[in-house]
């Protein structure tokens, strides 16, 4: 429908990732007339198209590949599995399509008007859209929600061609398993994608500027996680930085030097430098808000020094313009964006919208998984909080033993006086599912004793959570 003007909406959402599409649907459920715009030909944003969903598809497929390799240990003789990478990529694409089409269905069901094209805020209450089909739309609206997400942070001096030197997007599209994959950055995304290719046969080297992996994760958990990944073949170069990435015809030459503090000399000797020749380089040093081309400057929306949209209760400094998800402060997590989307929709419908930022879980979807919610020990110590620790290893869990998934533990941190749960940290099988129990308990101000006195089915992995809660008072049964 080209060149249509003057269409009135209660809400226009820019971006149909987890935050945007959830916001649009919830607002429509509450009776608002809603349009949702996305620059891609399919809905779902980074998460569904080139992030959460395709990476989890490959993580699952590669984990099955590994499990089949060890099926003989359980008396199942299958022989050595053969990898069909094109078929695995088709499996991934089918998963993406199924999810994005699901959003199409939900939009139709809830009468959300969906548009595909580049949106520009030309004035408060007015959004112009350059549609992918070549047409244009001009929308008028009472409110605008910016939910445009984030993009990979570039490494200065390194050009990403998505062939030899790739972002997370390119690492989901390899047409062959690299013999040697070098990952710049030991964060969540890099370690997940590294796990995929390590399982399928790649040698994986991770270069990290800091002296530890997964910054922000509880230090004890991170150390255990690193040991587990090293057993799986990962090589870590910590306290190092990549100073040159030189693509060749079919390989990449990477120069690595010790990370340098401010008071060190900028001149490094050749003896301190290390050069590696690898097949692929994945640059995974974080993500940054995506706000380019939205017209924010022209309408006066303020950004902070990190390029995030400044908000107060999701409101920007411009009346009628709101922002959620990766473009505002806080962890760049799909589920955080979803909760913010619901909160804004409910606020616009006259209801009290709220997000509890103290209870937002994080998960690393490797094998084993890592999950956490609340504060870690380093944060509690910095705040001077007196706390107790309850820890239980999966080695002592009956289900983990028979499943041969005994790496890791559950750790519960509880207030020393009130017993209120302050943080829960898990490294182990299905940690991402198990953390939900802890999140529910914390949402309602639960104590370690509340978890300890809750009957858990046997034999389950979640019994490790109960035992860790018991261990807060030194009364775990199975250790």
From TrEMBL:
Cross-referenced PANTHER family: DIHYDROLIPOYL DEHYDROGENASE, MITOCHONDRIAL, DISULFIDE OXIDOREDUCTASE
NCBIfam families per the UniProt record, alphabetical: lipoamide_DH
Annotated GO biological process: 2-oxoglutarate metabolic process
Segments forming a coiled coil: none
Entries under InterPro entries matching the protein: Class-I_Pyr_Nuc-Dis_Oxidored, FAD/NAD-bd_sf, FAD/NAD-binding_dom, FAD/NAD-linked_Rdtase_dimer_sf, Lipoamide_DH, Pyr_nuc-diS_OxRdtase, Pyr_nucl-diS_OxRdtase_dimer, Pyr_OxRdtase_I_AS
Note: The active site is a redox-active disulfide bond.
Family under the similarity heading: Belongs to the class-I pyridine nucleotide-disulfide oxidoreductase family.
GO molecular function, one term: flavin adenine dinucleotide binding
Required co-factors: FAD
Any one of the GO CC terms: cytoplasm
Binding locations of FAD: 56, 148-150, 326, 332-335
Aminoacyl-tRNA synthetase listed as a keyword: no
Key words of the record: Disulfide bond, FAD, Flavoprotein, NAD, Nucleotide-binding, Oxidoreductase, Redox-active center
Domain of life: Bacteria
Protein name per Swiss-Prot or TrEMBL: Dihydrolipoyl dehydrogenase
Binding-site list for NAD(+): 185-192, 208, 286
Cofactor note: Binds 1 FAD per subunit.
Known EC number: 1.8.1.4
Active site: 458
UniProt cross-references to Gene3D superfamilies, sorted A to Z: 3.30.390.30, FAD/NAD(P)-binding domain
